[in-house]
Amino acid sequence: MILSPGVWFGHGAAIRTAQPAQPVAPLRCGSTLPTRCPWPLLWSFGVGGVLGSRRNQERCRLCRRSLPAGKEVEVDFKGHRVRCVTCAGSVSKPDIVLVHGFGGSIEYWRRLIPALSAEGYTVHAFDLLGLGLSEKPSTEYSIELWAEQVTDFVSKLEKDVVLVGNSFGSLISLVSATQRRPKGIVMLNCAVGMNNKNMVKSPKMNDLQRLVATLILGLVDLIFRSPILDMAFESFATKEQVAAVLKNLYPTNPSAVDDELAEGFVRPAGTPGALEVLRQIYTGDPGPTPMELFAKGFPSDLPLKVIWGDQDNLTPIKGDVGSFFTELAKVGKELGVMPQALLTSSFS
């Protein structure tokens, strides 16, 4: 993997930057896109060069409040309203579809969208069903449901698509790729599942550890199915509380946690059905692990890029998933798996 100075992704600035990240002013209607993106990323499978290295004089034609690009529109998935933004780019480049993670929304990508748009990519970002400001119907939420949503969205585009997922958005992208093949996938700090229940599948656990983990997960289920969650949700879902938690997840760049990012997590919490979706995420089926997907025959020639923060405490790079992709990067062609998968565990 090739990473340029000043980049952070995944769970905030868990990836160490070689130089301080420069702030990006939110774009509003008629704003000129940044002349130089402070988030340069080199993709190895043909989706572009260093982001932000070329001046783009085109103005954003679609905008909403302080979102970096894209008029907010509604698209349909299974008869439900899904919030989406699109910023049009060059017809000669693949479209990029951004898939957020737990608690995320379009706002999570507020700095990446203008960076990609400045390089001429058509960028799509949407709130997963039940998350962000998308509709929150009474249904069974799962990695598979969201993967179906991604596949449904991609199938309506008439170009090659690169999926970019964060946290369990990375896992969702992997599952979607088994349904409809994209041009490639970029994964940022890939999660082991929709929740932590897949941890008991870890080969690193002995029987006693697995028993203790199962008991703890069972206790979490009881708490999240009880009125305790309702009381905790009301007291915790404030901008101040959320910002404090997010800063712990951005150890190398806590200043990245601004009001806009915190609001992007808090605002959806006030929408109808948000609490029940949270309850399901923590108590539901975790879905397949990345390792299980590969064991079942994930396409070995699909270009894959993995980017990981070496200080990510939520999904540590030395955990099962991080270790799996680290090994995958080492063995490459020897095992007949994606030779283009590149991973580095430390950025200095």
TrEMBL record:
Give the top-rank taxon of the lineage listed in the UniProt record for this protein.
Answer: Eukaryota
Cross-referenced InterPro entries: AB_hydrolase_1, AB_hydrolase_fold
User: What's the protein called, per UniProt?
Assistant: AB hydrolase-1 domain-containing protein
Q: Which organism is it from?
A: Durusdinium trenchii
Q: Where is the AB hydrolase-1 domain?
A: 96-317
Q: Which Pfam families match?
A: Abhydrolase_1
